[in-house]
Write a structure and sequence with these properties.
seven-stranded mixed sheet; globular; mainly beta
């Protein structure tokens, strides 16, 4: 079982920045991939960024050029740097990891609100 704890959410004006953190209770070295998903109010959860082994990253079209996913193995922490935030980025952001056995673990989410 892997526990994930997100932090860094909050209220920001449009055009501002936030950095989300996701602290894992297990080594990131044992994870196949890690990512962040976004759930806007009354909408389905959608993947916005995923980081694979070798540093390969995937980004949803809606966040390309604005968001950056990264990891710090020494701290077992995954980050999501969010720049040029837009009101449509508002919602709950969830961290998840997939281990070498294919098990998926989710954090509890952190709220991001972007005011116009």
């Amino acid at each position: 079982q892997v526990q994930l704890v997100e932090s860094g959410g909050g209220l920001v004006e449009a055009g501002g920045s936030l950095r989300l953190s996701c602290a894992a209770s297990a080594s990131l070295g044992s994870m196949t991939s890690m990512g962040w998903s976004h759930q806007a109010p009354e909408k389905a959860r959608e993947l916005v960024a995923r980081l694979f082994g070798g540093g390969i990253a995937y980004y949803a079209d809606s966040v390309k050029g604005r968001f950056t996913i990264s990891r710090d193995n020494a701290k077992n922490t995954v980050y999501l740097q969010m720049n040029s935030l837009k009101p449509e980025d508002t919602g709950v952001y969830y961290c998840n990891v997939i281990n070498d056995f294919g098990s998926v673990y989710w954090g509890q989410g952190t709220q991001v609100t972007v005011s116009s």
